[in-house]
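Before a colleague's protein record goes any further, I have to sign it off. Alongside the sequence sits a line of tokens, each denoting a local backbone shape. I want your independent view on whether this chain really folds as the tokens say. Where you disagree with what is written, explain briefly why. This is what I was given:
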Amino acid sequence: MTFIKNTFKTALFLLLLLISAQSFSQKFHPEKLEKTLAIAIKKAYGASVRIWGFDTLKKVQTSAQFTGVVVTAEGHILTAAHVNQPGNTYLINFPDGKSYIASGLGEIEFTVNKMFPDVAMMKIIEKGVWPYAEMSWSSSLKIDEPCLSIAYPETLNQTLPTIRFGRITDLKNQYGFIQSTCIMEPGDSGGPLFDHFGRVIALHSAIGIAEDENYEIPVDLYRKYWTALNIPKTYGVLPSTEDAIGIDPHQSTILSIPALKNPQSGFTSLPTQLRESCLFIRSMIKGKEQQVNGTLFSLPAGAAGKEKVNSLVISKNSLVGDHPVLFAQNESIVLKVISRDPENDLVLLEPLSKVKGGIPLKQFRTDSLSFEELGKFLLSPLPDQHNQISIIGSMYFKSPKRFSIGYLGAMATLKDNNIVITAVQADSPAGVSGIEVGDQVVSINGIDINKPEDYGTELTKLWPYDQLNFKIRRLANFYTKNLTLDVFKPPLTNHPAELFPGGKSIRRDGFTQVFCHDAKIKPEECGGPVFDIKNRFCGINIARSSRTTTLVIPTFVILRLIEKHYTY
């Protein structure tokens, strides 16, 4: 009798899942999908690991970082062959902060073309029981099935992974890869793609130029060659030893949501007041017209700065120059710069004539961004366009200044107890101003330079277009060079991660508190608002950091800026 009851309960559970899957496929329900994704993330997050080559004797990193996923309690890790070397040692960094050593096991990369099939395995050396994610079956995937990436993009260089959402667009292309719209970049290689149950369905391998071109290694290849991959060797052809793949017991309940092709249609429209809070701003920077988005806020009646004011605008400081003008309700409205906040790249502006609408301060999301919020949907309205749909990809984090440092174009080193210029880029600010190899650096902006660290410390404080007073000694004479720093220009590259439409923001890091999402925001579309599906204001898009990531300045930073200048 107990057996019959249990069998009935199991059948009923599967029937309910099947009905749920069918209802999802007929109509897109963001709230239901959020709950489904939250469960998947909770199951999968702790098994997604950050990895790099590691010399266990010298205790030093020996490779760029990449990603993998632990799939057994014994510590087997799936990753990509192009980041693995059989027999090498690797440092495995879990999201909980703990690190362990793993050894590279088998890999399959064809002799005729090492890009395929890009399959590799590692195993943690230490005995233990490790957090792991369940392996799914790539053979049971469906077109338009929702999926999640949990990986470590290199440009962010964070200890915790970021989460991206997408759908399956190709079950098997001509090279044997699955294709998804979960955006990836260097650092994500070998990282896991999960289904809506939190099971590994594929591993990240390669990308195209278009953001929706993301190629994944089917997890069934790891199932099929599990025994061979446990041997630390490189296979130039598919191994002769094969294992049974098995059948997915949940195949009939896997979701397919065609509405994900056009997700905007599945979301309730933002109220007009919020949708129209994202507006164009035009201004002049270095004699050229610059356009960027701005966010309109409505203040309570009686709010005052130096005088009564009913609305204000906040945008991206580095893209708002002289004579800013707001375009709203088919009008052009002159804006007055009230305050610039270079640390957060925000500018506070006041319309000189009345503007209707704007985000009320009571619409601000004021609670903290917790782990439970990861994977929830966000909407970024853009003027004259559909809302950009994304998910919350991280909790708050610090984004150190790495790529947004003002560019001087001169290298220096210690020589005879002096800091001496050793190289100058001809077309750089240093080169144009006449700084030469052999010049002794005396001071930067009035700060004495006595050792190499001083030189680097003072330069890293500065942003592109900042003014620099450079005092040098050449032979027996002293010279002062006043110059303007430029934008750092990285070496030209054909890597697809650097060629996506719109590209990266010039000012894209150096923030003390941000969170990220996977919206495809262009640099000139920054400055606009971000909302959740409860219509709460969550922050301002401040930078397109990389192919995978747009950064958001959270509401408490915005509120702090407003309250510094206005009472209400």
In short: The chain has a mean pLDDT of 93.
